[in-house]
């Protein structure tokens, strides 16, 4: 009897091995698909968050940018300051941190008025919504020194503006201006 039980065990082992092989072949593609879906799920969420702003938001931020820098270019400090939050922070790669609306307005008055103008480089503006807050504006701006338009007096920099929409009023709360470079012709 012992002899007959050994082949039965052996056939059971062969059966189990064949079954395991069948299961692996059948479910391996499903496991791979499930694994890929699990990996892609967070990326889909990130992609959804990074979607460009709807047209209305883009137009709003473009308009605010134009107002801000029209005031900057014409030294309308009252209008310029009205678009900044009281506790705004301005980070500049060359001069460091400036905290507060009044400090930035004074800096513009003392260092920019009549000396520098700014233009948005066409085609560089990006706007993204920030849920329950407002929007982030990203772009490249070009600076000119009126009356001194030589090749070494024009510069470009990248910028990030964080706009807060509080009770329907848009104000900048954070600015990062970086990668300032002189343009060469």
Task: Give an overview of the whole structure.
By secondary structure, the protein is an alpha+beta fold. The chain folds into 2 domains: about 1-50; about 55-180, Nuclear Transport Factor 2, Chain: A, CATH 3.10.450.50. It has helices at about 1-50, 55-75, 75-80, 100-110, and strands spanning about 85-90, 95-100, 115-120, 125-130, 135-145, 155-165, 170-180. The longest helix is centred in the first third of the chain and has 48 residues, at about 1-50. It is globular and about 65 Å long.
Keywords summarizing the entry:
185 residues, alpha+beta, Nuclear Transport Factor 2, Chain: A, 2 domains, 32% strand, globular
